[in-house]
Amino acid sequence: MTLDKCTRGQKLKITSIPDDVVRAQAIRFGIAEGTIITCEEVVPAGPVVLGMFKQQIAIGRQLAKSIAVQPINL
């Protein structure tokens, strides 16, 4: 599953960021493989808003499509 397919309130673990350019962009946001995030909001035709480390980050849809995630139950 990719990050753009998440639903609001879902807890996710980043499993793979295959593209080096995308990985560099994600690292700037503090996102790396193994990071646990919460999907705060999915704006239709817009960004995916993530919650992590007591902050919210809006990730563009194209970037979100390149990040593989796995739903988790905490």
CATH architecture: Roll
Please bin the fraction of helical residues: 10-25%
Write the H/E string, N to C.
EHEEEHE
Domain count, please report it.
1
Structural class of the helices, strands and pairings?
alpha+beta
Assembly state: single chain
The CATH class name reads Mainly Beta
β-strand number: 5
CATH topology: SH3 type barrels
What is the typical, i.e. mean, pLDDT?
91
Strand content: 35-45%
Work out the radius of gyration.
11 Å
Biggest sheet overview: 5 strands, antiparallel
Shape: globular
Q: What is the end-to-end distance?
A: 18 Å
Main sheet: which strands, in order across? 4-3-2-1-5
* Unreliable stretches covering 5 or more consecutive residues: none
The number of helical runs is 2
GO molecular function: transition metal ion binding
Keywords: Iron
Domain Ferrous iron transporter FeoA-like: 1-71
Organism: Desulforamulus aeronauticus DSM 10349
What does this structure look like?
This protein is an alpha+beta fold and 74 residues long. The protein has one domain (3-71): Ferrous iron transport protein A (FeoA) (SH3 type barrels, Roll). The chain has helices at residues 20-28, 61-65; strands at 11-16, 36-42, 48-52, 55-59, 68-71. The chain has a five-stranded antiparallel β-sheet with strand order 4-3-2-1-5. Strand 3 (48-52) and strand 4 (55-59) form a beta hairpin. The radius of gyration is 11 Å and the shape is globular. The two termini are 18 Å apart.
